Structures are given as C-alpha cells and as structure tokens.
Amino acid sequence: MSEAYIVGAVRTPVGKNRGNLSAVHPVDLGAHVLRALMERTGVDPGSVDDVIFGCVSPVGAQAFNIARNSWLSAGLPESVPGTTIDRQCGSSQQAIHFAAQAVQSGSQDLVVAGGVEVMSRVPIGSTAALGMQAGMGNPLGSEGWLERFGDQQMDQFRGAELIAEQWDISREEMESFALSSHERAAAAIAAGHFDREIAPYGDVATDQGPRPGGTPEKLAGLDPLAPGGRLTAALASQISDGAAVLLIASERAVKEYGLTPLARIHTMAVVGSDPVLMLTGPIPATAAVLKKSGLDLGSVDHIEINEAFASVVLAWQRETGADMARVNPLGGALALGHPLGATGARLMTTMVHELHRTGGRYGLQLMCEGGGMANATIIERI
Predict the structure, then answer these.
(1) pTM for this structure?
(2) Inter-CA distances, 113 with 15, 31, 119, 200, 328, Å
(3) Active site residues
C-alpha cells in the first residue's frame, strides 16, 4: 500500500457572518484556494486525478457540484473531474480521507481535497428548509425514522445542551474555555502563526472572528439559546465563510514531480454515535483511531478538535484526559469560526503548518458531525 502524503495545504482567511468575504461567490472562494494550491506546490494542474470538496449546503450558489465549478472557475484544465460530498461538519475531513484512500490504494496519484462554505449567503439548513417549503418533505420524517426516534427535536443545539447536562459541564466552565479560545486565536494572529497557510483574498488577509479582551462578566450577561439552558451564542461556533484545500500525493507522484511532503496520513477512522446527543462522536473516534495507530494520546503533539460547541470539547476532554495545552493551541471555532464544509480542511491545514513551526511529530484531528458521526485523522510530520 502506498503512503499518502500532504504536499500542500492552503486556506482563505475565515470571514465572519456578513463580513468581508460574505459578498464573494462560493465558487470564486473555492477557485481562489485551488489556484493558490497549484502555484505553491508547482504541480501541473493537468496531472491532478480528481478534486473532492466538502460542502454541507449544496444549494443556490453552492449547488451543481461546487468542486467541479470551483476548479473550472479557477481556469484549470477541463480534463480534471471533481465531486462534492456531505458528511456534515466533517465533509472536508472526509474529503481528505477519500483522497488518501485513493492514493493508498494505488488507483490515483494526485488528489485535491478540501471544502468551501459561505454561510453568509447559504445559511445552515438551507437544503432542508427550501425542500420543505416546496413541499418535498421532511428529511427526518420517514416512517422508519419516526418509528425509531419519534418526532423529537433532532439538532446540534439540543445535542450540545444535552451533553452539557449529561457531563454536568457548567456554564462558567464553558465560558472560561471560550475566553481561552479567543485569546489563543488572537495571540496566534498577532504572532503571525497563520500567515504561511493563508492565501489572502484581496485585502482580506486575517481571520475575522477572534474577539480578544472578553471578560467572564460579559459572557455571563448573555441570554441562553434555550430557556433555562446553559449554552449561549458565545459557547457555539461562529457562522463563517471560508475555503481550504490540500494536495494528497502518492510516493510515485512525490518522486516524479519532485514534491516535498509536509506530512503523511498516518491513520484514519470514522465512527457513528448517538444521533440524539449527536456530537459525542469524537470520544469513540479517538479510541478507534488510537487503537488502529498503535499510539496513545500522550504521543500526540497537537490536537485539533472542532469547537462546534464548548460542551463538545469539554465532554471529550473528561472522557479522554487530554492535555488541554495541546488542544487547539491556536484557538478553535468558537473564535476562528466554522465554515461548515471547509472546516475539516481548515483544521488540517493549520495543524500541518503548526507541526512544522513547533517541530511536533504527530497531530490528531477530530470532528463531531450532524446525525451522530465523527472523523478522526492522525498525521505524522515529515
């Protein structure tokens, strides 16, 4: 089996809701990072075997296979195909898995994996909402679904609240974590730690989400998302716009094209979990990927777990005992934002570059996903 190497990783800045990237067509945002990836790696675009993008809301401006549309809009060869996938928030992390699997199997040598989402233009849940408005039916309204789960509320907000209750995570604990995420992200931006991975879009060169200088008193004054609940807007990931892509190469491609590997895909896992709690998947995913890899959590130098909600990360930490100094050291989605289909590739791009900056060897990426699933990926810096 061939190794699968990451030979390039680039992203846009993450724009905040209705911010500086909100007017950009999602296809143009995807095209922008594709051009940057080809320029930075020096690969002949015609040598790419496939382009795999994650996108959670493929409707409107994001419809009709945004991977293919972005590639063509970038002015790249028509001979290269593309496909768009949806594993909810883990879509572009799954794109990386599919790309690595294609390379490891020997069926392909160069695959682009990434994702894009402009939530300012295409809000979360747009596909279901538009379909229901048009009388096409509720995606969670089938006879089999109702027989198994009833008509109870099934969404990430409820799941995150249930997690906070089940693990008895206080609002104050979550607010402390959120403040830390913003401070870490702001410090990373000030130190220039993201500069190498970002391809500025026009004059937008910096992530827009972090708000340093918050206080416990300010967060304590926010209203809960649900009456009597523990979660507030500050404890949920930000609505965001962005795109990110990586180039996955085989050993043969590395030699033939003179590429410089940044990391190798060490181990991959994907699991299902309780669809009512919905967001606990990173807990079993961590166990699964560590078992497959032969590593323990103490061997991992850098961990990126998506901060969909503060409760998700803190429940995972209680179950795994992870050293929080190694977890999201540059901040997470509470501060940097969560452009759904792009986030998996954004986290991987950040982790690859940060391992090189710090000299760490192993990185672990985890992503909770709608419907009760999670991807886990371990990479090894080269």
Answers:
(1) 0.97
(2) 21, 13, 20, 19, 22
(3) 89, 338, 368
